[in-house]
Amino acid sequence: MDLQMSEMGGLEATRLIRQQESESKSPPVPVFALTPHALNSGEEECMSAGMNGYLRKPFNLTELVKSVEDCGTGDA
Length: 76
Known about the structure:
Blueprint: H1 10-24, E1 32-35, H2 40-48, E2 53-56, H3 61-70
Parallel strand pairs: 1-2
């Protein structure tokens, strides 16, 4: 999830996704923040919005796979 989308920010979009999942009792989809920012405070905000992980750009395939595995999906 890009944190700086033009229509709706990534934090707002993630909160909306989590709300819809809760209302429909759907299983949660993995959501990872993608950001060029290296601020650790941003990571805390993303996790509190319901994201599963936080990747700083540029990231590599190994980092992405580890993030997916760490969130428990096993669908790397």
